[in-house]
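Is this the right way to post structure tokens for a design question? Let me know if I should format differently. Anyway, here goes:
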């Protein structure tokens, strides 16, 4: 079940309001239990959303054979590659890991 824009707006307004859920619901005439259900669905949608992520990268034009390139994943994995690896090959690798 997808939430309507109206429900999304209420959840996002509550998040920045600094109010408890109960106080926010009382102020805007919402049922607290219903709001809790909206919030559960909202969070599930956020977890399931596939959002492309761009990672800033600095590229050096020259590298000695002793330097390495480290790619660190969001779950703590690290991949060490030679710093002079082909940018095209690296691009293909990143597409495969996506």
């Amino acid at each position: 079940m997808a939430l309507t824009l109206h429900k999304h707006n209420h959840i996002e307004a509550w998040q920045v309001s600094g109010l408890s859920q109960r106080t926010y619901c009382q102020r805007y005439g919402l049922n607290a239990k219903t709001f809790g259900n909206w919030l559960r669905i909202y969070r599930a949608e956020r977890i399931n959303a596939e959002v492309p992520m761009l990672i800033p990268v600095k590229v050096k034009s020259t590298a000695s054979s002793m330097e390495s390139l480290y790619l660190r994943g969001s779950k703590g994995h690290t991949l060490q590659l030679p710093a002079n690896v082909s940018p095209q090959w690296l691009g293909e690798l990143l597409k495969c890991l996506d």
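Format looks fine. Someone answered above. Worth noting: The radius of gyration is 22 Å. The beta strands are 68-72, 78-82.
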